[in-house]
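URGENT: need a sanity check before tomorrow's submission.

F., can you look over the RING-type E3 ubiquitin transferase record below? I want to be sure the sequence and structure line up before it goes out.
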Amino acid sequence: MDAVELARKLQEEATCSICLDYFTDPVMTTCGHNFCRECIRLTWEKAKGKKGRRKRRGTFPCPECRELSPQRNLRPNRLLTKVAEMARQHPGLQSRDLCKVHQEVLKLFCEDDQSPICVVCRESREHRAHRVVPVEEAVQEHKVGPGMRGCRGQ
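Structure tokens as predicted:
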């Protein structure tokens, strides 16, 4: 497993399936799934209004597997809190650094659209005919400025 794949796995494990953001105060249901405390509370709050869905009072379905869990049995997951904090602090795992469509690292810059793209986007119909450069090169050109491009090697 390469570093990018490992980083992607870390990000996946540190992400709440309800809000799709890094866990904040993660808790574990009795079935073993993890959610942000506030996310699961709000989800179950909405479920309270739907009558006839619960077999036992005080229990709610897990958003992942639908197994009923008592609301009072949520357990804090301190290890996941630490994992989410590490993912939050890792510069390569910032959500802005990943393609929203393909979840790949944004390594390229589309000069036609003036936006960062991933290698999968590069091969798509949308960008195939566009001028694309590595992000680092685009950053350097931006720092130097378009009028100074010919002076770079001197």
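My own read: The chain is about 30% helix and 15% strand. The first strand starts at residue 26 and ends at 28. If you see anything odd, call me.
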